[in-house]
Amino acid sequence: MRKILKHKPLSAHRQALGNATVELSEIRIKRQMEKLFFAAREEVFEDGMESEFSRELVLSIKQYGDPVIEVIRELILNDSVSPEVASEALRWIGYIEHEDTRDARLRLLEQSLTSSSLRVRDGAVLGLSFLDDPRATGSLRKAMELESSKLLRRNMQQVLEQLEGELQCR
Amino acid sequence: MSLILRKVRSNRWYPRDECPWLEKGELQADPLGDFQTTENMLSVWLIEDDLSNLNRIITALAANCDYVQNIDYIVFDQGILTEIGIRMQNSQAKTPDGEVNSNWHYDLIEISAQKLLRLVEVLIDRVEPQRVLPKQTTQWITDAVLSGQIDIGDLKKHIREKIESRI
Q1: In a 3-state reduction of DSSP, which class is residue B105?
Q2: Nearest to A144 by CA among A108, A110, A95
Q3: From the CB of residue B85, how many other CB atoms can be counted at a distance below 10 Å?
Q4: Which of A20, A117, A133, B12 has its CA 20 to 30 A from that of B35?
Q5: CB within 8 Å: B11 and A117
Q6: What order do you get walking across the sheet with B3-8 strand by strand?
Q7: Which range marks the domain in which residue B9 is found?
Q8: How far apart are CA B141 and CA B63, in angstroms?
Q9: Contact list, A126 vs chain B (CB under 8 Å)
Q10: Contact by Cβ (8 Å): A132, B135
Q11: In this predicted complex, what is the ipTM?
C-alpha cells in the first residue's frame, strides 16, 4: 500500500521560514551586541564625547529598533556586562532621537533604575534626563525612596524636578 | 581665597557602596580617572568667591563637547593646593567662549605622582560632585549664543544643530 504523505500548505512553510529568519536575526543582533559591549570595556568614556561604542550603539538601535533594546535590556539587567559600559549605554539610549523605539527605551531606563549597580542606576537617571519624558516620574519617585546613595538620590531629585516641570509645560 | 573647578565624571565618585573590598582608610581608585595629567599638568578653572562666573564656565565646558551633555564638576578651595604644595599658572583654554578661555583657565603645574594622589585623597574626602543636567546646559548655551558670548560657528556639529533648532 502506498503511503500517503500529508504536505503542509505552502503558507505554513512560509510562516516557518519567516519565524526562522526572525530567530536568526535575533541571534545575530544578540551576538553583535554582546561583542560590542565586551569590546567597550577597554574604552575610557568622557561626558559629551562620542566613542566607538556610542557610534555603533546608536547605529544599531536606529537600524534594528526594538529587538536591539530587548537584547540590551537582557545584558544590563542580568548584570552580564561591565557597569561602566552599561551606564554609558543608558545615557545614549536616552539621548538618541528615534521615535520608533521611544517606548522601549523608556521602559529599559525605568527598569535600570533598580539595578544593583550604582553606576548603572546613574546612567539610567541621566538617560531619563535626556529622554525628558514625564511618564518616568512615577518610576523615578519610587527609585528615590529605595536609593541608598545620598549623591544619587540628589541627582534623581534634579531629574524628577525637570520631568515635573516638563509635565506642567504640556 | 578663590575656588577651583575641575570637570569630573560623577559616576566615578560614588562612595564606597560599590567597593566593599576596600580596607579601612582606603579610597577607591576610579576618581583618579578624572585627574589625568598631561606633561605633569592638570587643567582647572578659577571660580570667583561669589560664584559669579560659575555658570559661564560650565556653559563654556558644555559648549566644548561633541554633544549636548550634563556637566559634572567639583569645586574646592584653592587653599587645598597651597596645603599640598601644588602651584598653578594662567593659561589659554580652547572652549568656544574666548573670555572664559583667557580669564579663568589655569594649569596646575609640576605635579608629582605623590602630590596628585594626595590631592585626590583630600578631594574625595572633602568635596562632592555637582551636576548640571543636559537640558540646563542646552538652555545656557542657547542664551550664550543669543547674547553673543559664544559664536554659534565655533560649536561642534551636533551641538550647533541642536542650538540652531532652538533659536
Answers
A1: strand
A2: A110
A3: 12
A4: A117
A5: no
A6: B87-90, B105-109, B42-47, B3-8, B71-77, B130-132
A7: 3-164
A8: 6
A9: 70, 134
A10: yes
A11: 0.90
Residues sharing a CB contact under 8 Å with residue B157, sequence separation 6 or more, in sequence order = none
Output the CA torsion sign for A75, B134, A61, A32: negative
Count of structural domains within chain B: 1
A62: CB partners within 8 A, 6+ apart: A96, A98
Mean pLDDT, chain B, rounded, equals 94
**Interchain pair B131, A158: CB under 8 A:** yes
Local structure of B116: helix, strand or coil? helix
Range 23-62 of B in CB contact (< 8 A) with A: 33, 62
Within 8 A of A162 by CB-CB distance, chain B residues are 133, 135
Q: Do the chains contact at A118 and B65, CB–CB below 8 Å?
A: no
Give A113-131 pLDDT, tens digit per residue: 999 999 999 999 999 999 9
Instruction: Tell me the per-residue pLDDT of B82-139, one tens digit each, with 9 for 90 and over.
Output: 999 999 999 999 999 999 999 999 999 999 999 999 999 999 989 999 999 999 999 9
Is there a contact between B11 and A159 if contact means CB atoms under 8 Å apart?
no
Q: What share of chain B is helix, strand, coil (3-state, %, to 5)?
A: 45, 20, 40
- Which of A21-25, B17-21, B148-152 comes out lowest in average pLDDT? A21-25
Chain A residues touching residue B69 (CB < 8 angstroms): 47-48
Q: B137 with B69: CB under 8 angstroms?
A: yes
| Cα R_g (chain B), whole angstroms | 17
DSSP secondary structure letters along A80-121: -S-HHHHHHHHHHHHHS--GGGHHHHHHHHHHHTT-S-HHHH
Lowest mean pLDDT among B23-37, B136-150, B151-165: B23-37
Q: Does B65 touch chain A if contact means CB atoms closer than 8 Å?
A: yes
Q: Tell how many helices (H) and how many strands (E) occur in chain B.
A: 6, 6
